[in-house]
Design goal:
Elements (H helix, E strand, L loop, with lengths): L6 H10 L4 E6 L2 E4 L4 E3 L4 E10 L8 E8 L4 E7 L9 H5 L15 E3 L7
Parallel strand pairs: 1-6, 4-7
Antiparallel strand pairs: 1-2, 2-3, 4-5, 5-6
Protein name: Phosphoribosylpyrophosphate synthetase
Organism: Spirosoma agri
């Protein structure tokens, strides 16, 4: 797995590999943003993920998921620490727990976020 310095760099790489749709969770579904297509947990897979941790603020933690749907759409879902905790069913969020799925590449997935200089 490639290690990325920034979330933007990771997203650009995934987009170049065909992950062009944007997904967001909504209660029991994952929603494709441009078409508002709703997907249940069994209708998509997590192909890979990249986790970024803030160097000084735990609130900077972000996880980027690369997703493929059963009908072939490929896209990304960015989850900030705690952002969706009150909006999404535990069943849907369990789909993003990739620790027990050997098919998801998790090698070296945690990288610190590079601080942005004030210059």
């Amino acid at each position: 797995m490639t290690h990325f310095e920034t979330l933007t760099e990771a997203m650009e790489d995934l987009r170049s590999r065909g992950y062009t749709h944007d997904f967001a969770p909504k209660k029991d579904f994952l929603v494709e943003q441009s078409t508002e297509t709703k997907l249940r947990g069994e209708e998509f897979t997590v192909d890979e993920f990249h986790r970024f941790e803030g160097t000084s603020d735990p609130g900077d933690e972000m996880t980027l998921y690369a997703i493929t749907t059963v009908n072939g759409l490929k896209g990304v879902f960015v989850s900030a620490q705690g952002t969706y905790s009150n909006e999404v069913s535990p069943e849907l969020m369990a789909k993003f727990n990739v620790s027990d799925r050997p098919e998801v590449d998790t090698t070296g997935s945690v990288e610190p976020i590079t601080p942005v200089s004030a210059n």
